[in-house]
Amino acid sequence: MNPSFGGRLDALENWRAKTASALADLGRFLEEHELLEGASTSAILDSLRLRLTSDRLVVAFVAEFSRGKSELINAMFFADTGRRVLPATPGRTTMCPVEIGYEDGVPTQLLLLPVQTRLDGRALADLRQQPKAWQAVELDRADPDQLARALLEVTRTRRVPVADARALGFWNDESSDDNPHVDRDGNVEVPAWRHALINYPHPLLRRGLVVLDTPGLNAIGAEPELTLGLLPSAHATVFILGADAGVTKSDLAVWRDHLGTQRRAHFIVLNKIDTLVDPLATSAEVEAQVERQVAETAAWLGVEPGRVFPLSAREALAARVAGDAVALESSRLLRLESALADELLPRRREMLTGIVVDGVAGVRAQVGRVLADRRRQLAEQTLELRGLRGKSGAKVRQMLKRVDQEAAEFEACTAQLQAIRTVHARMLKNALAGLAGDRLRDEVVQMHKQARATLFNFGAKKAFAALCDRLRAMLTKSRKEAQEMREMLAASFVKLNSEYGFSLAADTSADLGRFAAELDTIEQNYVHYLGLSQALKLSEPGFIDQFRRMLLSKLRVIFENACCELELWSRSVSSQLDTQLRERRRNFRRRREALERIQNAANELEARLAELAAQDQRLQQLHDGLVERADAVCAGARSVGADADATEGQLAEAARSARIALAG
Question: Is beta strand 98-101 parallel, antiparallel or unpaired with respect to 187-191?
């Protein structure tokens, strides 16, 4: 793999690991000094670390049959085995979608989902959670021959009657030209597997890269969850064409129906340029022919010529196996890999940086309020005790009574707090009700009924658009209710702060806007599958049913995440009540204990004042340590270029500096 891509993916992984480590260090710092404000601050930090460590970069490879797609994947990811791993020889082609990635703690294996699972109505997302539904094949990384033999399974087919092929989605009575050949026994050939998962410890796969290898046009169209679920969720698509054939009718169909309207990064590969070499032509003439192919391909697909990458995957694989750097450069694969690195990796890092910086800012604000409230209470105690200098025992007794009276008056706030909690819980319940799974399922079922109520399901597009409008309205309603909840809490906090000396704040509401944006993306990516151009597909038995199951699975993720976001924000805001209530009660207890000691010992007053001064200094040091560590996390997250290769010793040094500041 080109160091430009592999090295920068390594840098991204190192950055994620170091940032996650810095977040964990920040969490330990807060826990050691009892600064985790309830469970909300800890939940925010855990969510940030999980997002960093579990983030995946998905690149989909799409092509019609015999375009050299598997050979390109071999050249990019499996050349270290010293041979072809994925089947890429004539007569051997991938017949089902194959996901290649790595999950730590899972054996190196090939998982195969039988094609018959299409008949029982279960969505692919649900089947991923059911290990018994898959057939496992062990992969021996140390034995490339065994690895290659095992992966031949993705090419396996089976013969079934036409009726079975129709039920499985591989036979269309209205489009006979695309149907498979019927043998003398009345059977047709269909893929043996619906989906395949390869868990393989390639260095780049370990670092969060996931490769999606898709089959040809017929197989793509037969699996709605591939076109409607996996392809739209990919961060980039590598669309492979053959330089020997140019842009064919079936290539255009794949581009038009499955790729061209999708909002993602597209990389067009013009493979097999080695076939253009002509012993009767000069190298300049061959190069001119390649350039003409590039220009024509760009024009056909409506993209910039710079998005088209002519190369030879076969020569690239041979060069990598032989360790021939000159031949690898000549294959032109490195330009594609550089483009992937330049466009995809900075975008992923920028997105993750924004999440980390915003999350740490929230943690810093929450913990800062806790420290500020503690310092304010110490200042009040100090002022109170300084007023006792030179005063009699009667004055101390009077102060004790005042503390008891203030404590009793403060406890009167508990009724208000309970009322606020009750209203808050009711408003939260209403906001979450609009995002509930049952409500979502009912809306999708309604869309399904409306789509099937029209001839040939032609009403599917209109029903889908209406569904998206209703779902947007649901998200908008929940956003409005969340804002009303924030306004209620903010008004209540102002009153509590004024009457009882709290320092509560409800600055922002839950950010549900990004989930509406995700819904918009789903609508834009999927709506063209339900138009008149897909009339034949819409009329197929079971297509709308499959679409409904897939759509519900995708939407459930969005709405469940929106619920989690709202609940996390709610816990974050409401946890202030418990934290500050506990702090104020502790403060009253300490004030009384201090006055009692002063009452019993004349020299205790100055000692207590010195103790308060020391506590205030320590709180200031804690605040400085918090700011330093939070700034270190954000600075590390924002670092670019050479900073991406910073060693973990730099983060450790930042941690040591903060501890020194705390130790005083």
Answer: unpaired
Q: What angle do CA 11, 14, 18 make, to 5 degrees?
A: 140
pLDDT digits (tens, 9 = 90+) for 328-361: 999 999 999 888 888 888 888 888 888 888 888 8
Residues in CB range of 277: below 8 A, 6 or more apart: 286
Angle, nearest 10°, between helix axes 3-32 and 333-386?
10
DSSP secondary structure code for residue 240 in this structure: E
Q: For residues 383 and 225, what is the distance between their CA atoms, to the nearest angstrom?
A: 68
Nearest-angstrom CA–CA distance, 49 and 355: 11
Strands 236-242 and 265-271: parallel
Q: How does DSSP classify residue 456?
A: G
Could you identify the residue written with the tokens 């208000």? 416
Alpha carbons 188 and 597: distance in angstroms, whole number = 94
367-416 pLDDT, tens digit each: 888 888 888 888 887 887 777 666 666 777 888 888 888 888 888 888 88
H helix or E strand, kind and range, residue 58 = strand 57-62
Q: How does 170-193 read in b/e, with b if 16+ C-beta sit within 10 Å?
A: bbbeeeeeebbeeeeeebbbbbbb
- Gyration radius of the chain over CA positions: 32
Q: pTM of the prediction?
A: 0.67
Q: Is 140 left (phi over 0), alpha (psi -120 to 50) or beta?
A: beta
Residue-wise over 513-534: b if at least 16 C-beta within 10 A, else e? eebbebbebbbebbebbbeeeb
Instruction: Evaluate whether 123 touches 549 at the Cβ level (below 8 Å).
Output: yes
Judging by beta carbons within 10 Å of its beta carbon (0-12, 13-18, 19+), is residue 233 exposed, middle or buried? middle
**Rounded Cα gap, residues 26 and 45, in angstroms:** 9
Strand-pair partners of 59: 211, 236
Q: Which residues contact 556 (CB under 8 A, 6 or more apart)?
A: 437, 440
Angle of the 3-32 helix axis to the 38-54 helix axis, nearest 10:
170
User: Predicted confidence band at 532 (pLDDT cuts at 50, 70, 90)?
Assistant: low
Enter the DSSP assignment of 180. Answer: P
Q: How far apart are CA 376 and CA 501, in angstroms?
A: 10
- Label each residue of 85-145 as H, E or C: CCCCCCCCCCCCCEEEECCCCCCCEEEEEEHHHHHHCCCHHHHCCCHHHCEEEECCCCCHH
Q: b/e for 365-393, b at 16 or more Cβ within 10 A?
A: ebbebbbebbbebbeebbebbeebeeeee
Phi-psi bin for 139: left (phi > 0), alpha (psi -120 to 50), beta? beta
Q: Tell me the three state secondary structure of residue 239.
A: strand
Length of the chain: 664
Residue 359 near residue 48 (C-beta atoms within 8 A): yes
Residue 511 is encoded by which pair of tokens? 């950010």
Chain centroid offset of residue 222 CA: 27
Contact of 265 with 242, CB cutoff 8 Å: no
The 8-class DSSP code of residue 61 comes to: E
Of the chain, the percentage scoring pLDDT greater than 70 comes to 84
Please tell me the predicted confidence (pLDDT) of residue 658: 37
Task: Give the whole-angstrom CA distance, residue 186 versus residue 183.
Answer: 5
